[in-house]
Amino acid sequence: MSDIDIPEDHPRYESLLTRHRIEDGVDKGITSRQGLIAQGRGETFDYLLGERTIPSAAAAERAAAAYLLLAEHPVLSVNGNVAALVPGELVELAEATGADLEVNLFNRTEARMQAIVDHLREHGADEVKGLTADGRIPGLSHERAKVDSDGIGDADVVLVPLEDGDRAEALAAMGKVELVVDLNPMSRSAQSATVPIVDNIVRAVPNITRHARELATSSREELQRIVDEFDRDEALAAAEQAIREGGED
Ligand code: ATP
Ligand code: MG
Q: Where on this chain does ATP bind (predicted)?
């Protein structure tokens, strides 16, 4: 997928590839320059976690899949970093769960919105929401409050990867089930989530899709049991401990 030359046996191959995708996203007008900083922050936590999916994150990913399958109207929120890193993987997750895709940007510009919509379409999406912007999230300033009223506005379950803390809190206050992917368990986004997934987005999205496919034929009772058994505080504590002590495996 990449036009750069990183030797595959380089010990940090995955990390360098990810970094290049973000750079590429900036060049294509998909990712903001702020997104580069967010990526750097994420890499730090991923390094401390051992660049792997820790067991508590795997449990969160399974719970997230169950929530998406139980949802009346699930929506996957897409920003510039996510679009650069996992566009095709998001389209697959949307298909596996019947979710809508909606572009949602912290620094909203029409050009970047359109570039991301086009990028997702190139990766197989048919409908991408976000351009109508006829709904508002209460409690946020004008530009950052914009959503589609028949998208995130109407959703009962929202996957918000790498969401800004403020908006994550505002969405939670609207009573939506929030599935947050964020490598920092102490960020306000992770703290306000119904399901905090402390894992790299490049691992988290394919993992959630795999769980969703495995659970596709499960009964609602079985899905509900998975949701009920998931303990968000325990997951956040386990992730923080893994970062501080290198434990949990
Ligand atoms: P807040 O407390 O408001 O949430 P923040 O430090 O999280 O503040 P953001 O701009 O939301 O500020 O930072 C982006 C977040 O996304 C960081 O927590 C970072 O760890 C996380 N992140 C960055 N890249 C990835 C990635 N590839 N996968 C998962 N999480 C990531
Ligand atoms: Mg955050």
A: 19, 41, 182-184, 188-189, 200-201
CB atoms inside a 10 Å sphere around CB 18: 23
Q: Judge whether 99 lies within some domain.
A: yes
Ligand-binding site membership of 188 (annotated): yes
d(CA 84, CA 66): 26
pLDDT along the chain (249 residues), means of 10: 70 85 96 94 95 97 98 97 97 98 92 97 97 94 90 97 89 95 96 97 98 98 98 98 81
79 is in an annotated binding site: no
Distance from Cα 81 to the centre of ligand 2, integer Å = 13
How many angstroms separate the alpha carbon of residue 218 from the centre of ligand 1? 33
> For ligand 1, what atom is nearest to the CA of residue 166?
3
- 207 Cβ inside 6 Å of ligand 1: no
Range of the domain at 223: 55-245
Classify residue 245 by burial, with Cβ atoms within 10 Å: 0-12, 13-18, 19+: exposed
